[in-house]
Amino acid sequence: MRRLLxxxxxxxxxxxxxxxxxxxxNRVIHWIYWAGLGLVAFIAFGAVGxxxxxxxxxxxxxxxxxxxxxxxxxxxxxxxxGLLWRAFCEFYxxxxxxxEDLHALRQAGVDPLxxxxxxx
Length: 120
Description:
3 helices, elongated
């Protein structure tokens, strides 16, 4: 049972935030995803910088040969981190969408465990 509120308040974003009637996680997860990708890019730039630093410190063929596997390994690790971060964020989006679907089913009067339709 909903309380009667002043007109326009029930449909506002503030009311949605205060009552959890509508989840804001899609927007939040979107920002968290891009922040995580920024961190992964920072790791990739660090790997490139470390490889260049090794190549410059050892001003010989040996330094260059040490820098190549370090560069490839660092970029591969950054790529794996990027894929894992994407999978992690998609998992949370799926969990919250399941929650929203169950909330809609409950409001419609459908019991998702019994798979029955509400009486008409």
